[in-house]
Amino acid sequence: MLDLGPFSSESFDAKKWINSATQSRHPQDSLDNHLVDLEMKLQMVSEEIAASLEEQSASALLRVPRANRDVVRLRDDAASLRSVAAGILQKLKKAEGSSAESIAALAKVDTVKQRMEAAYETLQDAAGLTQLSSTVEDVFASGDLPRAAETLANMRHCLSAVGEVAEFANVRKQLEVLEDRLDSMVQPRLTDAISNRKVDVAQDLRGILIRIGRFKSLELHYSKVHLKSIKQLWEDFDSRQRTNKLSSERNEVERLSSSNEFQSSSPSISFSSWLPSFYDELLLYLEQEWKWCMVAFPDDYKNLVPKLLIETMAAVGSSFVSRINLATGTVVPETKALAKGILDILSGDMPKGIKIQTKHLEALIELHNMTGIFARNIQHLFSESDLRILMDTMKAVYSPYESYKQRYGQMERAILSSEIAGVDLRGAVTRGVGAQGIELSETVRRMEESIPQVIVLLEAAVERCISFTGGSEADELILALDDIMLQYISTLQETLKSLRVVCGVDHGGDGVSSKKEILDKKDGTQSTRKVDLISNEEEWSIVQGALQILTVSDCLTSRSSVFEASLRATLARLSTSLSLSVFGSSLDQNQSHVSDDGTGEQHLGGRAALDVAAVRLVDVPEKARKLFNLLNQSKDPRFHALPVASQRVTAFADTVNELVYDVLISKVRQRLSDVSRLPVWSSVEEQTAFHLPTFSAYPQSYVTNVGEYLLTLPQQLEPLAEGISNNDANNDEAQFFATEWMFKVAEGATALYMEQLRGIQHISDRGAQQLSVDIEYLSNVLSALSMPIPPVLSTFHTCLSTPRDQLKDLLTSDSGNQLDLPTANLVCKMRRVNLD
């Protein structure tokens, strides 16, 4: 048998097929025999295929005529079917026109039938309404409340059916009176059932009220029954207070009438110690009601018990606010003696001098924290309630504190202002000779110590805001902090003004700092000139004290910067937490409040967001929008939490630098004040018989004093630099600080000296030689301080050291432009050298 499958493949290759067939032969068979057998088999197969093909072709030819006849018959049947279908379609079109008219007529008939049925039912309702109206009194007389409720419900249904018919107007009024009458009949029984825990009776009475559409009456009766018991819990505080007061008075009488000198009286109970017990008893009461209502009112307990708490807080709200007010006042003796609190102080109805203190607000926060614990327990208890109901409940729980939160910014501003005023920032006072340095040092010490104290106060204010308002009053806090920082910096500025007087630079200045010199009208000398009675040691103590002011500026800048960064981070955290809380709660309110997570357990979405801030902000979208605008801005690194205060800190640093510079340059200014008017510049050379030097070989005292001062200044800056450089990382910064101030003073001294040199009207040859020595000394001092010699000063030295008759040639030979030409011309004018 041959496999004919490969022959039908499109990729059939005869050579490959033959080679494959020869490889399958038995090893003992010869190749020729195998090929002969293979050829024979192929020939036989081909003959069989040819015979089969011939036979099937003949059979197919015989079937062709029969198939032609079948095709003709099918064509005739299709034509006949097409004509029958066309006839049927024509009949359907004719039937469609007549049936449409029939359907329209049937529709009119059906409408008439419906109206007749409605009229019949209305007539029946009217007849029934008349009958019910006539028999309702008998039903009420029987005392069968369910039957009465059913009768009134049927009357209500009949009235809705007959509509606004004048004949039944009296029946409508009668129905309202009867419903009120039934409600009043149910009320005592419902009160008894709720009070005595009669579940079946309560359920039946609930059904009656719902049947007549008076479910609100059930809520009112339920709250009314329990409010009385809860109010007794609330009034327990007043009864204890009265009991303690009577006991105290009785003990006082007994003490006076007794021979004993002392007898203890019953201590009075405070509201802060009593409030947790009230919350515990109220929570226990509500838990019991929750469990009972789950059985008695399984469809209503999620609303009944929360609304009971809401009604409770509304009933005791004003009393609660009053008790909080008095409780905050008891922590401070002054307000305790007057029986006043925070609200009284804010209203201004208090004696002068009594202000809000930190203890007042801390007592308020302590009470608020107690309420927060109770609120979390309530949230857990009412977790199955609708989110809107739960939000209203939380708002009612926190409602006694709302009036305080609305005025939080005012409270915080008053507290911080009072605390800042309590910081010891006395300005410096002028003391006797020898004590100015001590006064300066003490004042600077007070300023430096006040900065961390103030920052601690501000940080405490931030903590209070988070604790009390949850961050919902962060915008008011920012305004208060900014104002308080301005107040504090203004006090520091005033202190700096007093330091200027102590340092003796209250009216001074120089050309470098662009200050106006105040000259004495009589002799033209500066009014800031110090008295020679001040010793050199005190001058240096004043300098050292003035340098310490720089540490105040540095401390204020760094501390305020760190505080502002911390405040900005706090605002960024609030932005995230409050957004999740408020917007999460709002989103859940617009969706299904209670959802199923697929496990059969119900949970409340966004429940963790129900904190004090969310409770306040959800219902005040405008305030929430403004707050979130501020919080979102805090995420920008360029944002200044205290914008105005930041500018004032920079201005304070500039003022400090200005004061320190004035102090450091003041000694230089004193020594150089009269240099331009020294008589030595115009002195004439004396005629002698011997050849003697015509000028002093040494610099004069005014310039040596200035030079010694400048050379000693690095030693004064070194302790301050070491104070700044607490570690190796700041060592370079401290070195730069000392060098910067050294250069600043040296440049100022040089500028003052050159200003004085320009003021010399005439100078003789002898004066020129002396001034040349003075300038050379000062140049050496500047070089020792690694200061470059100004071209103007070197020009003065060159022109003054050159003989008068060679000065003109010096100017004409200055090919390298090493001289400052305006200065050189000025020297020529001073030495009476004609350049024309």
Automatic annotation (TrEMBL):
Which one GO biological process term can you cite for this protein? retrograde vesicle-mediated transport, Golgi to endoplasmic reticulum
Record localization? Golgi apparatus membrane
Protein family membership: Belongs to the COG7 family.
Show the stretches that span the lipid bilayer: none
Which keywords does the record carry?
Golgi apparatus, Membrane, Protein transport, Transport
Q: State the GO CC annotations.
A: Golgi membrane; Golgi transport complex
User: PANTHER family, alphabetically?
Assistant: CONSERVED OLIGOMERIC GOLGI COMPLEX COMPONENT 7, CONSERVED OLIGOMERIC GOLGI COMPLEX SUBUNIT 7
UniProt-recorded name of the protein: Conserved oligomeric Golgi complex subunit 7
One protein family per Pfam: COG7
As for membrane topology, the entry says: Peripheral membrane protein
Gene encoding this chain?
A: LOC115959940
